[in-house]
Amino acid sequence: MSKNWNHERAVKHIDQKMDDVQTVSIKDYTREMLLESIPTNVAYRVDGVHMYADIQNLRDMLEATKAEGTDCHKRTLRFLDQHYRAVKRILDKVDARRVDFHSQRLHSLFTKPYNSEPDAEKRRVQRAVATAQLIIDVLAETGDNDEQIPAAKVRIGIDSGLALAVNNGRNGYREPLFLGDPANHAAKLASNNSTRGIYLSNAARLVIGLEEKDSPEKAPLTVEEIKDCQEAANLGVTTDEIVEEWREDLKNNPIGGYQFTRQTPPLCNMDISVLTPANSKRQEMVSMYADIDGFTSYVAENIDDNAEDVVRTLHVLRAEFERVVTSDFEARRVRFIGDCIQALTCDGTAHNTDEQKTVSEATRLAGALRSSFNLAIERLGEKGYETGDLGLAIGFDLGPISITRLGRHGDRIRCAIGRKVLESENRQCACKGTETAIGQAAYDAATDAVKSLFGTGRKVADLDYVEATEALADKGDESAKQARSAAYVAAPAVILADERDVRPYSATMARRPNRL
Fold first, then answer.
1. What does the alpha-carbon distance between residue 292 and residue 313 come to, in Å, rounded to a whole number?
2. pTM, whole model, 2 decimals?
3. Quick check: is 213 in a domain?
4. Is position 150 within any domain?
5. Contact 171, 30 (CB under 8 A)
6. Range of the domain at 96
């Protein structure tokens, strides 16, 4: 059976998910609460300091060899694992929360001291700065020359303010997700450019008595400013202590050698929760990022007076994205990163990837995600929910990708790495909220139909499921032709306006008669 998206099936699921969040409770986070199991229809307003640590030499690790073979992937995964363990140890020592570790980017949160204490926000920012410097100092010591693992080069961004905490993930992979300006601003400060250091937003700078900067992303904290924060925070832990404990931990809980096997398609059958270094997956596949454009501004505009609709909108969109990826196209969601879904897809056999078909199906998956996005926004609006001015930016590329979990037993996090993982995210970041972009490798492997659809600029606007399937099928793409044939068999025939052209009917196609 061909992979396909169906309007009626999507409507049914979207309406079910809106029922889940018909009543939403917004609560204030005022003390130590368990945020890992936030109910679907609950969100917490959390006042805290968000810190992103961006490891800048991940790409260097992936590109250390000319060919992207198993050696560079093994070294890169060991590089990430060692540094994740070190940073996790630091966060535990300073009583901060690890939110997520996505490839080279680690997000953490400081909620203590609570607002009931004097100068709470100032002390949180000072604690975050002191911790940031501790991370930089520790990671400078945690390379491994014997294993060709360099020390990490780190740039850190920090912001302070109010965010919404909601449930992140499904099917046993649940963590708190923080929505709003402080997380977004901290992430942008960390990933802005190649210059290392600690960068504070103007909001965070003002909290600790520093002057605002016209371009805070170009103004790293000075040695004296960092020292002042270290003295005020008095973390009570040193670089030498962390490094010594980290080395002892590696001795007692060694990472082990990375070993790869292929996952027989479809990828939806891959159980990431059982992966370990000795049981990792690696093969040629498509990495895809689909990011809700304008979501941070939407949260900022509604967090005070209409946070309920933010929770409703995010829940419906993420649940529908998950369904389209996993059920409609039998692909694998790796994680949700804020308002973005990271997914992998592959067609072929246990032994080989059918690269041409994989790219064709990824193109139609991208179209299906946009169709579901548009439909969900429409259905939410019909219920009277505020959805702002949101869009969907999608990027994907094809290449060797390794999937595993990092960390110690009992505290492992999922990870997908590869040059094309980074490139697919870059392609997504270069898109507006109406655009879909394909990477060069995927474009080169694609059918002529896919190349024609994306053009030489490798980017197309308003690519929904019908547009993608019809355009590819019209130019002879076999995957799209099979999907179209299956849809026509399943749909009742109706006579169109000229009474000579009998075609199957669907609500989506009715809105797009120019593509029939």
1. 11
2. 0.92
3. yes
4. yes
5. no
6. 31-252
What CA–CA distance (Å, rounded) separates 409 from 276? 9
Q: Which residues pair with 398 in a beta bridge?
A: 286
User: Average pLDDT per run of 10 along the chain, which is 516 residues long?
Assistant: 88 97 92 77 94 93 92 93 92 93 90 93 98 96 78 95 82 74 94 87 98 96 98 97 92 88 97 95 98 94 94 95 97 92 97 97 98 98 97 98 91 93 97 98 97 97 97 91 76 40 39 38
CATH number for the domain including 269?
3.30.70.1230
How far apart (Å, rounded) are the C-alpha atoms in residues 56 and 61? Answer: 10
| Domain contains 492 | no
Structural contact between residues 142 and 151, judged by C-beta atoms closer than 8 angstroms: yes
> What would the two tokens of residue 381 be?
């609006």
Phi, psi of 102 (to 5 degrees): -105, 105
Do 226 and 198 meet the contact criterion of CB atoms below 8 Å apart?
A: yes
Mean pLDDT of the chain: 90
Specify whether the CB–CB gap between 91 and 98 falls below 8 A: yes
Q: How far is CA 295 from CA 26, 220, 313, 381, in A?
A: 18, 27, 10, 16
- Look at residue 320 in the predicted model and tell me its pLDDT: 97
Kindly report, residue by residue over 142-151, the tens digit of the pLDDT: 887 667 788 8
In a domain, 498, yes or no: no
Alpha-carbon gap, residue 209 to 229, rounded angstroms: 11
Final residue before a domain boundary, out of 204, 230, 252: 252
* Residue 492 pLDDT: 47
Q: What's the CA gap between 129 and 49, in Å, rounded? A: 10
pLDDT, one tens digit per residue, over 240-293 is: 999 999 999 888 888 888 999 999 999 999 999 999 999 999 999 999 999 999
Cβ atoms of residues 472 and 480 within 8 Å: yes
Alpha helices in 266-354 (DSSP H): 295-302, 307-323
Contacts of 409 (CB under 8 A, 6+ apart): 253
Give yes or no for a contact between 239 and 141, defined as CB atoms under 8 angstroms apart. yes
What are the backbone angles phi and psi of residue 218, rounded to the nearest 5°? Answer: -110, 10
CA dihedral for 40, 45, 48, 53, sign (positive or negative): positive
Work out how many domains the chain is built from and give that number: 2
